[in-house]
């Protein structure tokens, strides 16, 4: 709270000065032996085209992707270019047998997770279970060639599946018109891939930054609750279930259809849920035992299938997956839906699921890259994920991205390169070719248990508590998107999340902080009075710190707020001391940018104040001439010293 | 360009130091006699409820409206409260005869302007001309009692009329269903008043700040061109005119219907247009002759009506207004449309015209208040304008606000108080009661000429050029909204204007400046290297200035950009000198706020850099503990001095 100094200077503090200030040259030297008045430098003259170019390059090429090509031979440039496009060319040449062994183990581990997950998530999107398996075969292969993350485990994810399912099923019933529904899902996947690729190509990756972490935490938690509620259908064996996703109709339908509850399903479901949750907890508590949580889903599928098969005559109540087609992904180019009344729906669904899956995929990629200290290129990841979805939509896959659970398992299992994705694909290939008949007796209830276990990890209670502690507004945003998803709809929740995020930025820009500053005795430092107890007001001066760049969105507010500070200060002085306010100094250190409205506001302020010397640091503009060099100082200390000298009688 | 110092210090500059730094205590004292290391003060502990309360009060009560009620007796509080609600109570008691004389002259002058304007703008909104006169009678009376501006001239304005007309006529034809159209216009006015009042009551006035001046300049200019093009119908005497507002269909319809051009109309129209434009120019060039431009519209109406009346047999080609009903505003409470298929349209139109007219009214009010050095209370103006529109919608008035042309004339004519609005109302009342039959022969072509003359002032070429000179991005935003209005539609143009404005804020927040800073030799000042030629790098240190608060929207960018600066610096050092980079100092002076994502980003950055001592100034959070006091300094100079001492061998 206190700005203590390690060594104390003996010269009197500037705040001891009384007004009107009378400083003789010698006094002045005594007060501040090192006080010099520096001329404020204007920015170097650069053409506005160059400025514009710099601005654009910061927006679109802030990562300087062409840096590596500088000063290279033509051949080398081609090689680097290919390596840039296909990161596999970077690591494949130096790939060793040791890498292969690690990747083999990791790949097989995520395969054991991804087969039951694929089937489950496809059901979440109201798609045939086999689509989920197809989606774990083609996209990982493409990502291996194009992606820049070494640990990303690619496949269907719960949030995107849920959103796609809930958006499409609002218009087209997946049970009444399964073919149309499938076509729309594939088309939405195509558009989401196209959108993702375009974002990457046009280097617009930064738009996913507008989804703040705080609102995402709320959205994810809300979606997890919604998904878990949906699983009550499978878990309780209910046949007639609510068509809506909101929590109220779902719960009321659960209790209205009590007669449909099947005790066999319930017993089986809850025992496997218990088993899966225990395995998950074990994996969380002891990271070395991650394989328990990784293997649990497949174990559950195998065990439940076996038990249903053995007791197949007496457990007819338990609904089962049924026959799955054997064979590789069939082509679905001719199934894409480019004409017709539902095209708009497909595009909209594609955009929303596209941006959601990008957000998840890139966040996951970045998280694990930080752990191993390498960088993931956001724009290139978008192209990789986008192309893999476009290719997927032509080969019976629905939307995929980097999945948190798979990536965590992949990382813990010791994956070294994206090769583990190829291993996983091969394992899925074997399953598609030979193991499909085995899933015939797999009960749906175990899939519901797998989904619940997976999405429970999305409820990040600790992160929400942390938000509450650090930033109440962030927490409020989090709550808004949580309850939006829960009580309105997934899309509304998402809209609220984006709206609140953007509104928060706007609010912070619209209402910047302004602080009265004072001198810390014995120094040339000027700090916020409310922040530093030792800081003291300088008589006759009002020093205001402006806390943000001045834009059109805050220029009016700042202008009025500064005038209010001035009148408050005048009232305070009137009641207490005999001095008068003679000069207002604006500390513009934090004003790193100013637009035309900001300049107008400063000009009007100067006109209104009709007072002396505002200290400014700003770019070229005629406003500089108005304030003239005498009104511009490099530091608050220099401004006070110079003005005090001018006030000598 | 250069930071010259007025007095030159003799001690060696810190940038002369070589690395590894060896500073003995005495050396250190010699180098910087006043260097002290200050402990960074944490913000005073205030409860998060208080913080939240402060934040909310800054958002909603930044003008401190309750300030005047402090320390007053109960009776005085009541009086002040009434005066706050009805500003007329503030100035009426001290109203003098001299004031009345000034206001009488000003009121009659704006009446002479507002009668022809009212008729013309009503036609712009496809409403019966008399509605425009009604709208100049009731709303000014209400504004006089409630408004806080002394010079605002209230009445219909061109932009809001145009937008209302183009939005409503897209769905409902004003010629085929005139009654329904009128009802929708009144209902839209009601909702716009309701919306404006709510904005004021809930103190959300700041949302109009999101429409940047730059985009408004473009929007206004585009709208002015569109309105002028629409007047070609009247000016050329065309009967079958394009139903759309975009420039291409309008121009093509003008040339397709060449047979309908009427030379009598054209001759009359262009002569009056010439007369009006000359009068306008005279008023602009010599502000003392403002009354010429103010009286010109009424003169034109009188002259044209007279000439049509005299030559009425031979000028049958020229279309005329026709009979106008005599009498006061009829009540239209029962005409408001609260049920039915077009309710949504009415609400939407109300919202958009409401926000547009607020923007115009408040900007005009503020501009003229600044000239006379008084303040206009934004939120109270919203309530006044909102209530006057709600009352207007019940008494045959369509949307009104503070009009730029009327206010300018009012101000120049020497108005002292809002009483001039009452004078204008009375003059309009006389016109409504006794002069209506005189308008029967008024030709429509002269109204078209009046509209063109009025809207031409909205094309602010100089402001656009100024934008081009100062800020290319602002100019681009201006062009976008200009061409959006011209080639798409008024609403699209407005959407683009808002979108570009918001996107500009987001972009500025997303891509803040980062600069390498250096020491100005002989001082403790650290400034941007590219800005100050004299500033020199400090060996072994990389000093980066962060140019904005750190939010979720820029935390990823900043993290990656800082890493890029570091690697670029390392490359530069490698190629040139033998020293190594040992410490990165972040100058957080401009980082006036940081959210949870920002803190996470700094933590990750610290983890990635795995280097020493980042200088930070930020609010309470656990990140502070991680950096510990040794990593936080009050100034860059102190950080360098302290770290250099620690490096002593």
Automatic annotation (TrEMBL), chains A, B:
Claim: Membrane is one of the keywords in the record: yes
Membrane topology: Multi-pass membrane protein
Major localization class: membrane
Keywords: Membrane, Transmembrane, Transmembrane helix
GO molecular function: secondary active sulfate transmembrane transporter activity
Annotated PROSITE patterns: SLC26A (PS01130), STAS (PS50801)
SUPFAM superfamilies: SpoIIaa-like (SSF52091)
Xref: Pfam families: STAS (PF01740), Sulfate_transp (PF00916)
All copies of domain STAS, residue ranges: 531-618
Parts of the chain that traverse the membrane: 126-145, 180-202, 214-232, 261-277, 289-311, 382-401, 422-439, 445-463, 475-503
Cell compartment(s), UniProt: Membrane
GO cellular component: membrane
The keyword Transmembrane helix appears for this protein: yes
NCBIfam families per the UniProt record, alphabetical: sulP
Protein's name in the database: STAS domain-containing protein
Source species of the chain: Daucus carota subsp. sativus (Carrot)
């Amino acid at each position: 709270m206190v700005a203590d100094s390690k060594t104390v200077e003996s010269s009197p503090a500037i705040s001891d000065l009384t007004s009107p200030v009378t400083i003789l040259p010698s006094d002045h030297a005594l007060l501040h032996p090192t006080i010099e008045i520096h001329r404020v430098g204007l920015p170097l003259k650069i053409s506005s085209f160059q400025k514009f170019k710099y601005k654009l390059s910061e927006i679109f090429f802030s990562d300087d992707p062409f840096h590596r090509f500088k000063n290279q031979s033509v051949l080398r440039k081609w090689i680097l270019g290919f390596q840039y496009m296909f990161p596999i060319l970077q690591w494949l040449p130096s790939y060793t047998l040791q890498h292969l062994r690690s990747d083999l183990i990791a790949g097989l581990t995520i395969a054991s997770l991804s087969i039951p997950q694929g089937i489950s998530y496809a059901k979440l999107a109201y798609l045939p279970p086999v689509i989920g398996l197809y989606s774990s075969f083609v996209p990982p292969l493409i990502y291996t060639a194009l992606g820049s993350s070494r640990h990303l485990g690619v496949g269907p994810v719960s949030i995107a599946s849920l959103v796609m399912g809930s958006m499409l099923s609002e218009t087209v019933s997946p049970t009444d018109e399964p073919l149309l529904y499938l076509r729309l899902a594939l088309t939405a996947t195509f558009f989401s891939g196209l959108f993702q690729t375009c974002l990457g190509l046009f280097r617009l990756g930064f738009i996913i930054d507008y989804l703040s972490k705080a609102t995402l935490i709320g959205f994810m938690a809300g979606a997890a609750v919604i998904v878990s509620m949906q699983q009550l259908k499978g878990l309780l064996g209910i046949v007639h279930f609510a068509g809506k996703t909101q929590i109220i109709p779902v719960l009321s339908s659960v209790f209205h259809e009590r007669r449909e509850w099947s005790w066999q399903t319930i017993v089986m479901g809850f025992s496997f849920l218990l088993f899966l949750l225990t395995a998950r907890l074990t994996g969380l508590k002891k990271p070395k035992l991650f394989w328990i949580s990784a293997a649990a889903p497949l174990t559950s599928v195998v065990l439940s299938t076996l038990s249903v098969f053995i007791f197949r005559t007496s457990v007819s109540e338990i609904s089962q997956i049924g026959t799955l087609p054997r064979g590789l992904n069939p082509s679905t180019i001719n199934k894409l839906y480019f004409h017709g009344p539902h095209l708009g729906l497909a595009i909209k669904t594609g955009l929303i699921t596209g941006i959601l899956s990008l957000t998840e995929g890139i966040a996951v990629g970045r998280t694990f890259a930080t752990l191993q200290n390498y960088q993931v290129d956001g724009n290139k990841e978008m192209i990789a994920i986008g192309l893999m979805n476009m290719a997927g939509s032509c080969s019976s896959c629905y939307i995929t991205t980097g999945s948190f659970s798979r990536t965590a398992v992949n990382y813990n299992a010791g994956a070294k390169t994206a090769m583990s994705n190829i291993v996983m694909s091969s394992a899925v290939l074997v399953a598609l070719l030979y193991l499909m008949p085995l899933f015939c007796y797999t009960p749906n209830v175990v899939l519901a248990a797998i989904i619940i276990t997976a999405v429970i990890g999305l409820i990040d209670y600790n992160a929400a508590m942390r938000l509450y502690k650090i930033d109440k507004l962030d927490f409020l945003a989090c709550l808004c998107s949580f309850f939006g998803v829960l009580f309105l709809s997934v899309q509304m929740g998402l809209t609220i999340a984006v709206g609140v995020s953007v509104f928060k930025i706007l609010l912070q820009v619209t209402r910047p902080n302004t602080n009265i500053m004072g001198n810390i005795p014995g120094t040339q430092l000027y700090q916020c009075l409310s922040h530093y107890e030792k800081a003291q007001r300088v008589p006759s001066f009002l020093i205001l710190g402006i806390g943000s760049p001045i834009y059109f969105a805050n220029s009016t507010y700042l202008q009025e707020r500064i005038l209010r500070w001035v009148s408050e200060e005048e009232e305070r002085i009137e009641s207490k001391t005999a001095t008068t306010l003679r000069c207002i100094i604006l500390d513009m250190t934090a004003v790193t940018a100013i637009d035309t409205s900001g300049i107008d506001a400063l000009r009007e302020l100067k006109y209104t104040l009709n007072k002396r010397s505002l200290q400014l640091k700003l770019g070229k503009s005629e406003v500089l001439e108005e304030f003239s060099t005498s009104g511009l100082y490099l530091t608050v200390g220099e401004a006070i010293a110079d003005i005090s000298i001018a006030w000598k009688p």
